[in-house]
Amino acid sequence: MQDAGTDMPRNAVPVSAAWWRDRRGRPLVFAGLLLTLSGLTHVLVWWIDGGPWEGPVTWRKPILFGISGGVTALSAGWALARFPARRGDLLLAWSTAVALTVEVGLIDLQRWRGVASHFNRSTPLDSVLYDAMGVLILWVTLVVGDFMVRSFRQPSGLPADMRLALQAGLVTLFWSCLLGIWASVYGERQMMVGQPPERLGAAGVPKFAHGAVIHALQWLPLVAWAAKRVGFEERRRLWLVWMATLGTVLLSAYSLLQTLAGRPRVDGSWPLASVLAAAVTLLLVPMAVALMGLAARPPRPTSAGG
Question: For residue 2, what are the β-bridge partners?
Answer without folding.
Answer: 9
